[in-house]
Amino acid sequence: MNFPLDRDGVVQLLHQYNITPTRQRIEIAGFMFQRAQHLPADKILEGVNAEGHNVSRATVYNTMGLFAEKGLVNEVLINRERVFYDSNNAPHHHAYNVDTGELRDLPSLDVQLNNLPEFEQGMQVVGTEVIIKVASK
Amino acid sequence: MNFPLDRDGVVQLLHQYNITPTRQRIEIAGFMFQRAQHLPADKILEGVNAEGHNVSRATVYNTMGLFAEKGLVNEVLINRERVFYDSNNAPHHHAYNVDTGELRDLPSLDVQLNNLPEFEQGMQVVGTEVIIKVASK
DNA sequence: TTGGGTGCAAACTATTTGCATTCGA
DNA sequence: TCGAATGCAAATAGTTTGCACCCAA
Q1: DSSP state of B92
Q2: Claim to verify: residue A63 and residue A129 sit in the same structural domain
Q3: Does residue A58 lie within any of the structural domains?
Q4: Inside any domain, residue B119
């Protein structure tokens, strides 16, 4: 993904992911894909409407749920209070600052897993998530 | 930790972690440390009281929050719906079955991180959490 | 004795849902 | 046109909080 995405890029992207590009979805995606960022639904609602758009709370929640389901964004569950949506859908890991609540991408982090046990028949690994927790000394 | 812990073991453990051993805390810890397990607060409330005890909802939430803060148990944030408390406080990682919601320990998993970027001055890594997501084929 | 701990119910907050209205194809 | 999408408000669920009472040290 090369940020930011213009309106055409957004529409194209939505099509690629089999998402009907409505006005609201285009505006939400346009806002999310300005840059790689991690935002809770609330901030997305705020941000989209601050750009002069008019999208309801329910639509933001529904839309982000849809985007996550379709793989356009990733949900990051770190903080018990709320879900963060990550506009970077390339495989990568995160550093979480437990003091500030800040979430940071670790795009170059290379993870090697040794001694991974076998899973039951019919099970397959669908993802590996690594979260490095950091704090002030 | 060698499960299960008897009452004396629990009291001793609470002392070790600087937690005043009240009746309710002993009952909650006694229930949690019967075995290595991952439970949401709700199930802990249910389980403790099913053993014939009488502990309120608020006390379970407060107590598990305290236990987590003191490092006696670990919070596992996987599911947006609720926090899981892990009675195994030894360093280890998890496999999460996205279909069933089941959470499993991976005690032997060895994780090697390469290319970890430098963090700002004054920051230190306080933990590394790996979650392997598995699903039915 | 007394400060911390507990219980209850009410409050809170993120998220979901029901349903009438509107819109995209 | 017509099923899908949206908006609003009400509902939901997990969790937290205020406050009076109680207990461990």
Answers
A1: -
A2: no
A3: yes
A4: yes
pTM of the predicted model over 0.85: yes
- Quick one: B101 and B77 in the same domain? no
Residues 18-77 of B with CB under 7 A from strand C: 20, 22-25, 54-59, 62-63
Same domain for A102 and A63:
no
In a mutational test of the A interface, the residue from B75, B129, B136, B137 whose CB has the highest number of chain A CBs within 10 Å is B129
Residue B17 domain boundaries: 7-86
Q: Is the same domain home to A102 and A69? A: no
Does residue A124 reach within 7 angstroms of strand D, measured from its CB? no
Spatial CA neighbour of B96 closest among A67, A65, A131? A131
* Per-residue H/E/C for chain A: CCCCCCHHHHHHHHHHCCCCCCHHHHHHHHHHCCCCCEEEHHHHHHHHHHCCCCCCHHHHHHHHHHHHHHCCCEEEEEECCEEEEECCCCCCEEEEECCCCCEEEECCCEEEEECCCCCCCCEEEEEEEEEEEEEEC
Q: What is the gyration radius of the CA atoms in chain B, in angstroms?
A: 17
B50, part of any domain:
yes
Tell me the pLDDT tens digit for each residue of B40-99: 999 999 999 999 999 999 999 999 999 999 999 999 998 888 899 999 988 899 998 888
Strand nucleotide closest to residue A60 (CA to C1'): D6
Q: Are strands B123-136 and B93-97 parallel, antiparallel or unpaired?
A: parallel
Total count of domains within chain B: 2
